[in-house]
Each structure stands twice: as structure tokens, then as C-alpha cells.
Amino acid sequence: MDRFVFLVGTGVARGVVLALFALSLVLIWRSTRIVNFAAGAMAVVCCYVALAVTTVTGSYWLGLLAAVACGALLGVGVERGVMRFASDRSPLSGVILAVGVVMILQALVGIVAGPQYRPVPTPFDDRALQVAGVPLLSPYDLFVVVVALALMGGLRLLFGRTTLGLQLRAAAFAPEVSRLLGVRVARMRTLGWVLASAVGGLAALLAVPGGLGLNPHATDALFVGAFAVAVIGGLDSPAGAVVGGLLVGVVLTLVTGYLGAGVAPVALLILLVVVLVVRPTGLFATVEARRV
User: Fold this and answer.
1) Using one digit for the tens of pLDDT, what is the confidence trace for 176-219?
2) Is 281 exposed, middle or buried (0-12, 13-18, 19+ CB in 10 A)?
3) Could you tell me if 191 and 95 are in contact, meaning their C-beta atoms sit under 8 angstroms apart?
4) Beta bridge partners of 134
5) How far apart are CA 44 and CA 248, in angstroms?
6) What is the spatial distance between Cα 11 and Cα 5, in angstroms, rounded to a whole number?
7) I need a labelling partner for 161 at 20 to 30 A (CA). Which of 13, 151, 155, 266 fits?
8) d(CA 61, CA 258)
9) Predicted model pTM
């Protein structure tokens, strides 16, 4: 029972990071109808920038801020320099451009930083706390959960309670009508990329210390997991990303803990297939409502 409780707690911490990264994919999909396959490569660049700033200044917090700022700048650069030229007539256009961005960014990171793994420091102890003799979350896990939940709450507040959030949603759902009403749709799309890329960079920085360390492909598995989460929850649904992230995080951690790490990808594939067979548009998809 102690092992089960520990694994569930660890799965929740892992799940909120997956949910956060999936949220960055959902934000871009909602604003541009493009699946950002470059999200992992963009996030790994943010992690290297954060590690460099942390190494130079000795401050984890400055590194964290640098990761967020790097994500925002990359979002502007990729959207204005590449994705804005994706054709609306072919959904493959955005995918091909995103794959090109992945190849360029990972090659540049590999040339500059090399292929070796680099340890990433954490601001808090990563050893699990004991409660009544049962190992639960570590202080770093608690930090990750608090940051992720605070950010999700902030995004919900932004999109649900502010004029800017209303303009972002209007530009995504009805761009032509929004233009007639005076909303600068192109600017809103750029802002969507900025938000999504900053969130993705932060999520990757929170996740990397839990793995082998930082290398040019450190976020590949995170992207695959987050993409599966976004599909399971529904690409249109921020709430689906959150619920899907927690579900996938707990399931993968339990499978890894009881059956081994090699079985976890199979479990994720089975979960993805089951959800898509039962509900092809995802658990919380709102496509039908938008068509009306």
C-alpha cells in the first residue's frame, strides 16, 4: 500500500508537468489549428538557456525566468518567421514547417552544447518526504505541482475573465468576424504562440531534473507524452489537457513502478487507442459545439 501511495503521488507530480506541456500544444492548436511538433525542440532550447543563466549567476530563479523569456522570444520568432507562411489549404504545411524547425533547433543545440547529458539543478530537495512512515512527494515535486497549478489557474483567469482572453478566443474561433469587430487577429495569434512557447519552456525546465539530465533530445519523450495527453483530452480543450495529464501521469507511473519502464510506452499506446475508439475527438473535445 505504501508503494501504491508513493507512486500515485509521483504520478500526480509527473501528470501536472505533462498537462502543462499539453496545454501549450492546445493553446497553439486553438489559435492556429496547427499541431506544434516543434514544441519539444523549442523547449529544450529554453532549458539550455536556463542552465547557462543558472551557471553564470548561481541563481535557479534567474534561470527559470530566462527559460520563460526564451520561450516567449522563440514563440515570436517561430510564428512570425516560419509558421505565418503555412498554407491554410493544407494541414500538412504547418506540420512540415514544424518538423523543419525541429531539425534546425536540435542541430544548432547539438553543435553548440554537444550531445552529452548535463545535470540540471533543482531549487529544493528531490528526496521524498516521509509521512507516518510512507514516502510521499519530495519538496521539489510539491514545488512543481504548485507552479503548474498556479500557471493553469492564471491561464484560466486570462481566457475566462479578461478582455485579452476574449480577443484570443474570438481570433481563434471566428477570425473573419473578429477582424470585422476590430480584433487584430495576427497579433492575437502571435500572442498565442508567445504564451504557449513560454509555458512549454517552463514545463520542460520543471520536467528535465526528473530524467537523466539535459541533452538535445531531453524533451522528446515529454513531447510524445504531452501530445498523447492533448489527443486524449481533446486538442481543443484546456480542461482535457489537465485531466488527461493527470490520468496519463498516474497510469504511466503505476505501470513503471509495478511492471517496469519498458512497459510504460505500451500502456500509453493502449490508453490512447482505447480513448480514441470510444471517443475519437478526445474526452473533452468541443468540436461539435464549434461547428454549430
Assistant:
1) 888 888 888 888 888 888 988 998 889 888 888 766 678 888 88
2) middle
3) no
4) 131
5) 22
6) 10
7) 13
8) 35
9) 0.85
Identify which of 151, 196, 192, 200 has the alpha carbon closest to the alpha carbon of residue 175.
192
